[in-house]
Design a protein that fits this description.
By secondary structure, this protein is of the alpha/beta class. The chain is built from nine helices and 14 strands.
């Protein structure tokens, strides 16, 4: 299987390259950047080769600036764009990244028409919409990283609070990858036990009560907090990218929360890309799953849809389409 990364010289692109190089399902990796960043990519590939030798992993890594090298890619990761700086919101990147994503999406369609596009560039829900429309791909073939990373962060915080293995936390975040993300608390469980009952157990076991509001605030601000501390996010997004791609290439049919184009499947929402639970396999999105929400969650999800749609319309007008 061949995976190509556009924008591979960035923090997330480089970390994702290393994660994917370790995977048995990937045997060809193409790292693409602008001409001036090729030295960085060459050094990165040599460093990865050394690491893989220690693990006994064999993978072909090609570094280039030629988009024709996208040909025959099974998945193309689109992570090119302006990075967030401390204090910036994801939406601040909209106009700067829209043209970049549009141009690359056109090139992907020309050189890798049978591929699946995984959009990482922020604001990811809007950029996923642009990639879908410009590429002309079917909606199951264009996926945004979206709330998969948010859901992983939420699971991580909960696991650390309740002192259980992260695999025992069953929850997800939907909606916007941003301030309008919606945690599905009504269907959250720990080891199959609904959160409200587990919280009671947690309290009587001597742990601190779980502060949901504070935890959600941490998830919403996680990216900004990390950027403020170290200048960029890398490993969280990289492993989330690898998780999605291996699910696709191995045809695992896992249910992950990614940004997908809606045509009325959930709450009648149409013509917008939002984070929703989908079944992922070799064909990309093999189905959008229905969501059971509380009244408050439904209200927040509809607000998220309205906000993302408004941002999408604004940025599309900027692009002239």
């Amino acid at each position: 299987m061949k995976v190509s990364i556009i924008g591979a010289s960035g923090h997330v692109g480089r970390a994702a390259a290393f994660c994917l190089a370790e995977e048995n399902s990937v045997n060809k990796l193409v790292l693409i950047s602008r001409e001036k960043s090729l030295d960085i990519l060459e050094g990165e590939s040599l460093d990865i080769y050394d690491a893989l030798a220690a693990k006994g992993v064999d993978v072909s890594i090609n570094t280039c600036s030629d988009l024709k090298e996208l040909n025959d890619s099974d998945v193309v990761v689109l992570s090119a764009g302006v990075s967030r700086k401390p204090g910036m919101e994801r939406t601040d990147l909209g106009e700067s990244n829209a043209r970049i994503v549009a141009d690359y999406s056109k090139s992907i369609a020309e050189n890798a028409p049978d591929s699946i596009i995984l959009v990482v560039t922020n604001p990811v829900d809007v950029m996923t919409y642009i990639a879908l429309k410009v590429s002309g791909f079917k909606k199951n073939k264009v996926i945004g990283l979206g709330n998969h990373l948010d859901s992983l962060r939420f699971k991580n915080y909960m696991a650390r609070h309740f002192n259980v293995h992260v695999s025992e936390i069953h929850t997800r975040i939907i909606g916007q990858h941003g301030p309008h993300m919606v945690p599905l608390i009504s269907s959250t469980s720990i080891g199959g036990i609904p959160l409200e009952y587990y919280s009671a157990f947690d309290y009587f076991s001597g742990y601190k009560p779980f502060n949901l509001e504070k935890t959600i605030k941490k998830v919403k601000n996680a990216g900004s907090y990390i950027i403020g501390k170290k200048g960029a996010t890398q490993y969280g997004p990289a492993f989330a990218i690898s998780n999605i791609i291996t699910t696709i290439l191995n045809d695992e049919r896992k249910i992950l929360t990614v940004s997908a184009y809606l045509e009325g499947e959930i709450e009648g929402i149409k013509d917008v890309c939002l984070g929703v639970p989908v079944k992922l396999g070799l064909d990309g999105i093999e189905g959008i799953l229905p969501i059971k929400m509380s009244d408050d969650e439904r209200k927040e999800f509809l607000e998220a849809a309205e906000e993302v749609k408004k941002d999408t319309e604004t940025i599309c007008k900027y692009l002239g389409k």
